[in-house]
Amino acid sequence: MTEPAGGTEAELLAVRRQKLDQLRADGVEPFPHAFPDVEPIGDVRAAHAGLEDGAETDSTHRVAGRLAARRGQGKMAFLDLVDRSGRIQLQAKLDVLGPELMERLLGLDLGDLLGIDGTAFMSRRGELTLRVDGFTVLAKSLRPPPDKHAGLQDVETRFRRRELDLIANEESRAIFLTRAKVISTVRRMLDDDGFVEVETPMLQPLYGGAMARPFVTHHNQLDRDFYLRIATELYLKRCIVGGLERVYELGKDFRNEGVSFKHNPEFTMIEWYEAYADYQDAARRLEAIVGAVAEAVGYTGELEFGAPWRRVTFVGAIRDETGIDILEHRDAAALRTAVERSERVDLPTADLTWPQLVDDLLSKYVEPTLQQPTLVMDYPVEISPFAKAHRSEPGLTERFEAFCGGMEIANAFTELNDPDVQRERFEAQVRLAGEGDEEAQPYDEVFVQAMEHGMPPTGGLGLGIDRLVMLMTGQRSIREVVLFPAMRD
C-alpha cells in the first residue's frame, strides 16, 4: 500500500490510517513507551570519521529518528534517518531482515519515527551507512511531512507551524541549536564569575524597569489586577539590597507594543546586577560575554565583536546625524521647533514629550547607522529614571545602550542608589505620564523604601537574547529566532 501520488489530503490521511491499522493487526505497537540507549546520529558519524570507502566494521549502533528518504526496493533498499544531530543512510537487505520485516520496513511512510539497530560500514561512494539488523516503529506519522525537495517555504506557515519548519528545514533546526548555545554560554560566563541566578515574579502588582506599556491581567481569587513584567530590574535591585551582590535572571519579559522585525511582545532578556561596579564595568563584561558567545557558536560574519567596542556619546551621535543639539533645546516646545525647522529631520512632533522626541531622534536617525558593535554613552536624565547622575556631565546619566546590526541589543546603568533622588525621578515620570507619555514609569514606593535600607554602588545591564541570536545567526527578523512568535490572525 503506497500513498497516492498527487492524492488529496483526505486520501493521503486515509492511507496512513490504514497502515496504522495494519501495524496493529500484525501485532506491532505503533506508539511504544520507550526505546532506550539511543546514540545521536552525529556521534555515530564522528565515531567513524576517516573510515575508508568500502570499509566494513563490526561496530553496532542504536539510533532513532524520522524517516526522511527511501530509495530502492526488492532485495536491497536505502533509507535516510534524521535526528537533530544529523542524517545517516540505512541499508535494508532482504537476506538480513527476512521477507516479512523487509516488507514492513519498506511499507513505512516518510515522516515515521523509527528506532534502528545496525552495523556501520562505509559505502563505496564514501557514505557512512548502518546495515539494518532490526528496527522498531516508534511513532506512526498520520500526516505527511512537508515536501522533501521544496521543504517548507511559506513564511507564515513556517512561523505558525514551527514543528513542520523544524522537520523540513535543517537551517531552522541549526538556528535553535545555536540559540541554546548562546544561552548556555551567557549563563556559564556569569556563573563562573560568581553571579547567582534568581527568579523574580512575572506577575507583578506594579510594573517597572523599562519604558514600555504592559499587559494587564486579573487574578480572580485576589480580585486584583496584575501586570506581566516588562523588566526584571526593580526586583533584582531589591536582591542587591538584600546582600546577594551579584545576581542575574534570564527569562521572559512582556511589552504591549508593536510587532516588527526586531519586536515580539514576548521576548527573552538577561539582566545582571553587580554590587560595587559601574557602567564601565558593565560595558567590559558585555564585551567579554558577547565575544565568548561569538566564539562558542563559531560566528564567521562581518561583525567584529572583539573588545573594545566603539564608543560615541548620545548627544554627539544625534547631533552628527541630525544637526540638532538636544541639550540646547531642553524642553518639549524648543525641541519640537528645532525638529520642525531642520532640513535633515522629518518627524511628527505633535503632542510628543521631550523624552519621546529625543527617543525618536535616536531610534530613527542614529540607530540604523550603527552596524558594527557600538556603545552609545551618557543619556539625558529625562529618559533614564534609574541611572545615576553622570559624575562630570550635568544633566546626563551614566547609562549606555549597545547597538549592533542597526538595532539595540543591551541597556546598562551605573544604577541610581540614592532613594531621595529616585523618589524625585519617579515624580518626574508621573508628570510625564500626565502629559500623555503612556510609557512613563509608575511610582513604586516599595522599591524606594527598599533603597532606603541601603543599596551599594551597582552596575547593571539588560541584554536581549533574541536579538543577540539574530546577530549570531545572520537573521534579519526576530521571528526567525523565536520558536513560536506572536502572529496576527
TrEMBL record:
It is found in: Cytoplasm. Its cofactor is Mg(2+). GO terms for molecular function: ATP binding; lysine-tRNA ligase activity; magnesium ion binding; tRNA binding. It is an enzyme of class 6 (ligase). Binds 3 Mg(2+) ions per subunit. Residues 176-485 form the Aminoacyl-transfer RNA synthetases class-II family profile domain. GO terms for biological process: lysyl-tRNA aminoacylation. Its EC number is 6.1.1.6. It catalyses: tRNA(Lys) + L-lysine + ATP = L-lysyl-tRNA(Lys) + AMP + diphosphate. Mg(2+) 2 binds at E408. GO terms for cellular component: cytosol. Homodimer. This is Lysine--tRNA ligase. It comes from Paraconexibacter algicola.
